[in-house]
Amino acid sequence: QDDPMLRFVTEHQLPEASSGVHAGAEWEESGAHAALRSAGFAHGLVAPVIIGGEFFGTINFARSSASGEFSSADLHSAQLIGEQPVLGLWPMAMNTPVSGSSLLAPLFTR
Fold first, then answer.
1. What sign results for the dihedral spanned by CA atoms 56, 13, 34, 29?
2. Is the pLDDT of residue 110 over 50?
3. pTM over 0.85
4. Which helix (H) or strand (E) holds 50?
5. Which of these ranges, 34-48, 50-64, 84-98, has the smallest mean pLDDT?
6. pLDDT averaged over the chain?
7. Do 91 and 104 touch, CB atoms closer than 8 A?
8. Which of 2, 83, 92, 108 has its CA 20 to 30 A from that of 100?
9. Closest CA to 50 of 91, 90, 79
10. Displacement of CA 70 from its chain's centroid (Å)
11. pLDDT confidence tier of residue 84, bands split at 50, 70 and 90
12. Residue 54, Cβ density class (10 Å: 0-12 exposed, 13-18 middle, ≥19 buried)
């Protein structure tokens, strides 16, 4: 598994960003980082999806270098989405844009 963020999230069931302490130099040299770069992104965030108290998978976010690194607030928002996936799907299911006042807005508007 050539993705230190995914490995950390799978093992600890906590969100992790590419700028996080668990990614570090290993992230810079990973295939996952190379894949993001080739798609025009510079920063990644991976969070666990927990359904019924069980690890189900992950949700992944990426940003360009112009958008900056993910913050601790972004990590917290991603964790909330992962713990309650319906929150992340609701705007899409309702075909409603996420407003600037929404809890999820920082993840969708950058």
1. negative
2. no
3. no
4. strand 43-51
5. 84-98
6. 79
7. yes
8. 83
9. 79
10. 9
11. confident
12. exposed
Residue (of 107, 72, 69) closest to 88 by Cα position: 107
Q: Ramachandran region of residue 52, left (φ > 0), alpha (ψ -120 to 50) or beta? A: left
pLDDT at residue 58 in the model: 92
Residue position matching structure tokens 């607030």: 73
Total length of the chain:
110
Q: CA gyration radius for the chain? A: 14
Q: Which residue has the tokens 């990590």?
A: 75
Interacting residues of 107 by C-beta distance below 8 A, sequence separation 6+: 61, 74, 77, 78, 81
Q: Which residue has the tokens 């080739």?
A: 38
Q: Rounded CA gap, 79 and 15, in Å?
A: 6
- Nearest-CA neighbor of 78 among 49, 55, 109? 49
